[in-house]
Amino acid sequence: MAGTGAVTLSGTSKTPAGMPAKIPLNTSPNKPYPGERTMEKITLGPMPYMSVMPTLLVGANVKGKPNYMTAAWATVACMAPPMVCVAINKARFTAKGIEENKTFSLNVPSAKQVVETDHCGLVSGAKEDKSGVFRSFYGKLKTAPLAEECPLNIECKLFTSVDCGSHRLYIGEVVEIHADTLCVTDGKPDISKINPIIYAQATYFNVGKQVDKAFSAGKKYRK
Fold first, then answer.
1. Which range is least confidently modeled, 8-12, 16-20, 215-219?
2. Three-class SS of the chain
3. Mean pLDDT over residues 165-183, rounded?
4. Is the pLDDT assigned to residue 31 strictly greater than 70?
5. Which of 195, 202, 204 lies closest to 108 in space, CA to CA?
6. Is 201 left (phi over 0), alpha (psi -120 to 50) or beta?
7. What pLDDT is recorded for position 39?
8. I need a labelling partner for 215 at 20 to 30 A (CA). Which of 87, 127, 139, 142 fits?
9. 38-72 per-position pLDDT tens digit
10. Domains of the chain in sequence order
11. pTM more than 0.90
């Protein structure tokens, strides 16, 4: 941002004559102190923005063949029973398979599979057979294809779906988790071993370094 009061990475600001060259940047609004200023904000308008999202492959049988599409708009929906959800454009070929079989899978690719993963987002199954991009296997549901090369596969039966406008939100009850043995630590998926692909700003990223422990870091806060 340019102009009077513009925030810079160094914490300095351009100010009128007579004002101090450096003013402390307030990163804790609940703790005011003399001469502080808060970060400047601008409005960007409504958009479906999230800072980072998982890169996943949604698997579904369409007309008897396994099909995979790349998706990032997915998250946990419920703890008990365990559920996950994914938003899919109504026009997508994969949506037809979910509606047809009432099952689907969410497959977590590793960074080494970024080319194949992106390919599945560039090409529609309506125009090209993508059943050979990954080796498919089936679990308990028999109709939700699981990509063997992906280190983690989430097998789901459709719980419900919600028409949100351009997209339909598919909520699936997790029937089983299939994981490569080398990607499991203490009976749980290990993100450092899976090395999943993170999606943000139309770009793929690796997972960064650990910052702190959840449900623990906040204990260091002092009022």
1. 8-12
2. CCCCCCECCCCEECCCCCCCCECCEECCCCCCCCCCEECCCCCCCCCCCCCCEECEEEEEEECCEEEEEEECCEEEEECCCCEEEEEEECCCHHHHHHHHHCEEEEEECEHHHHHHHHHHHHCCCCCCCCCCCCCEECCCCCCCCEECCCCEEEEEEEEEEEECCCEEEEEEEEEEEEECHHHEECCEECHHHHCECEEECCEEECCCCCCCCCCCHHHHCCC
3. 98
4. no
5. 195
6. left
7. 85
8. 87
9. 789 999 999 999 999 999 999 999 999 999 999 99
10. 53-205 (2.30.110.10)
11. no
**Residue that wins the pLDDT comparison between 22 and 141:** 141
Question: With b meaning 16 or more CB within 10 Å and e meaning fewer, what string describes 173-185?
Answer: bbbeebbbeebbe
